[in-house]
Amino acid sequence: MYFENIIGQEFAKKYLTNSMRNNKINHAYMFEGIEGIGKKKFAEELSKILLNSQSVDSSPDYINIYVDGNSIKISQIRKLQTDIIIKPHNNYKIYIINDAEKMTIEAQNALLKTLEEPPEYAIMILITSNKEALLDTIKSRCEIIKFLPISLLELKNYLTKTGMDEQRAQLLATFSRGSIKKALELSESAEFAIMREDIQSYIQTILDKNIIDILEIATNMDKYKKEVVNILDMMVNYFRDMMLLKEKVETSMIINSDKITFIQNMSKKITYSQVSKIIDIIEETKKKIRSNCNFNISIQVMALNIYEVIK
Prior knowledge:
By secondary structure, the chain is α/β, with parallel strands linked by helices. It has helices at 10-21, 39-51, 74-84, 105-116, 136-140, 152-161, 166-175, 180-187, 190-207, 211-214, 217-221, 228-246, 260-267, 272-290, 295-310, and strands at 28-32, 62-65, 93-97, 122-128, 143-146. 55% of the residues lie in helices and 8% in strands.
């Protein structure tokens, strides 16, 4: 069976398996989805099947193109164009363009010429986490395959198989939002533990109802400016845990179960209705920040709105 080493991605597995069985392999694919969900590994596994090889890294018919500095440059695409006219050793010659969204406009326009008239044996796979950064003419010449975040259960099972205890696997699977790469990075990150302590501090400050301290939250959160949406997601998870605690669910359902004492103490300070309103306020703040609203103002307004709910 094909793609046995790939976690999730059932649609991509079924679609490409059928394409191979029906001898309908396209000359250009775009694997699109968030980072760390197996797009590159899938491209490698597909290449192994098509090249009939268990190890493609040393194959002259398997070529990876990576970002050079901050972008993929036109010189790299021209090198591809020079190489692509050389016939493969077997049936196919496969080019993997990693982080394809980082191609310069010049590089994309150059690639377009090859996508329009590829050699019969050539297959190009563009791997991207942001297909909107690519020209419409590039996208129109690729078969776009959407890769989905790994399900919570599949990711948790994967992490436990690496030797991680079940509680920590559940926590990291939730915070990584379906990305295997992110989950593994968090498992090795000392900063993740510090980040969670800081989030608890923000929550405690708000629920202690000290307006002076509340007004300082935006300043204290400034160090997480680049990843503020992740921080707010984690805050939401804490408040959802409080909601679940009030519903008297089993502690196994609580995401931050290793912080159960903190959650119990905080949940005593607010009602179920207040928790629900707080979650709505945080979600609205995430929308504003994604729309490029001012960071400091957005966080201050969020903190003050929550204060108005609980004072």
